[in-house]
Each structure stands twice: as structure tokens, then as C-alpha cells.
Amino acid sequence: MAAIQANNLFEDQCQVESGPLSSSNSGLYGTFIGVYDGHGGPETSRFVNENLFANLKKFAYEDQEMSADVIKKAFLATEDEFLSIVREQWCVCPQIATVGTCCLAGVICDGLVYIANAGDSRAVLGRADRGVRGVSAVQLSTEHNASYASVRDELQSTHPDDPKIVVMKHNVWRVKGIIQVSRSIGDAYLKKAEFNREPLLAKFRLSEPFSKPILNPEPSIYIHKLTPKDQFIIFASDGLWEHLSNEEAVDIVHNYPRNGIARRLVKAALQIAAKKREMRYSDLKKIDRGVRRHFHDDITVVVMFLDPPSTNRTSTRTSVLSIKGTRGLPRTNHL
Q: What do the Gene Ontology cellular component annotations say (predicted)?
């Protein structure tokens, strides 16, 4: 794991959970990985970090299996729980309705990898290749960002009566001219009309009423059957992918030692960010948080190596791991 802060408040969260994937001893064992790229504040990403995995275990217990439906229900339950908090705090803290998070989750269980994504974070598989590079990149996640024509088409098809559902603003496609992602957890003010009114600040309120949610919390889910050629998966917020291609990222992981590899990916992205602005990497590191957002976004990276302990049921029974949040992850002066 590694993370770097660009905003005044660090809005990203991440977690890795290895062991039981059900709330009882039902025989479901494996590994869960989550990367939560918050926006508008850290509240939603922190909430997801504390509740999504618990919801996954609950539904896995109820269904007695791991499945795409279990993961979908966990996402939607987490969304409903957060909106309940927004409703409870609405009168005293209406701005919580404007806080949200992209949500990327991976589940490795019984030889399968489930990748669920709501937002524009990304999961990329590194697969052994006999070619010159020795490894190939396979993107496992679908991104929900209005910069993609397919996402704009989806928004227009689900909101046929709204000609302004997607607007080009400052040379960037945005949903309602506000936000780039079309799916997220939170962002209640763009999902429930009850949160798009006073006492919410006027700058967040839409001028026209809406009757159906503008953003969608439902994840896109892809299921991949692991093969002996599959070596690792990179889970990262979009801050990494703004500067590194899928191929560049898997090449770095393939060609360098495992120890500190997530940190190396973050450093590579920052070096490219500095080069784009024709400045030295050492000078970029000196820029204060907040101002740094003009050069790069918050970046969070988790690299999961697909060794037998990651995919074998017996090994995960005896090895339980839980890492949450961003405490202890490398900061600027460590890169």
C-alpha cells in the first residue's frame, strides 16, 4: 500500500482484509481489497472503509456464497446506510450531502477475482507474457467518468428528458456541469431531491428539480478466473492513472522488487506529474498540500500479488490480515 496527499484534507481510504469472507464459519475464505477515492471531504470514504466489508460478509453469510449479487447488495446497503446518516445530520450539517466517494473493490475467492467499481478508480492485472516485456496489462474494471463517450451515452439514455445531463465545462465533460463521475457512494444531493434544497448552500443546489437520481451507486462487476499466468493486480485511484498507463504500471511492478512497490508506483506518477509542468521532482515535493492539487490528485495504490496464499482456501484459513485507512502509509518526504 502507498498513498500521497495533494488536497488540504486527505480524502482517500483503502483496506485489505484476508481471511473469512462471511460473518460466520461458512467456509468462505479469501481476500478483499478496497480503494475509496473521496471527493468533497473524507466522510464518505471513511464510512465505506468501515462498513462495506462488513456488509459484504453479512450478505455472503445470507447467500452462503460469494457472487456478483452479494457484492452489489453490499454496495447498495452501504449507500443506504450513508444516506441515512446524511438524513440524520441534514439540519445541523447539510454539507455532508455533497460528500461522496468512488469505490473500487476486489474479492479473491475460490480461484475467482471479482472486481466491482463505482467511479473512476481502476484495477489492472499483470499477466505473464512470453513477449519482450515479459508481462501484459489487462484492465479488469469499468470506469464511470463522463470523459468517456459510452458513459455520456448511458447518462443520456437514462435521463432522456434532461438535455443538460452532461455538460462540457472548462474543457471537461461533467455530469450536470458539476462532477466527472457518474457512479459513486454518497453525493446525496445528486441522488435525492430532498437534499437539493435549503439549507444546502446555493452553489450546490441545482436550478432545476429532478425526480430520479442523477448519479448511480450500483457498481459494474467483472469476474475473472485466475490462471497460473496471472501475477498481480494493481488497485489505484484515478490520481495514479492520470500519469501512468496500464502498461507502464505493470512494467514497474514486474521489473522491481516487491518490497515498496506501491510506493514506487506513486513516485513514478509524481515524477511524470512534475515533468508535465516542466519542474523537478524535488521541487514538486516541497509544494504544500492544497496547492499541490494543481499538479496532481491524491493517489492511493494497493498491489496484490497472486501467490498461492492469496488464492488458496486453506492458507487463508490460517492467515488473517486486516489493514484499514491511510495511517502509516508513506507521505511526501518518504518518496
A: membrane
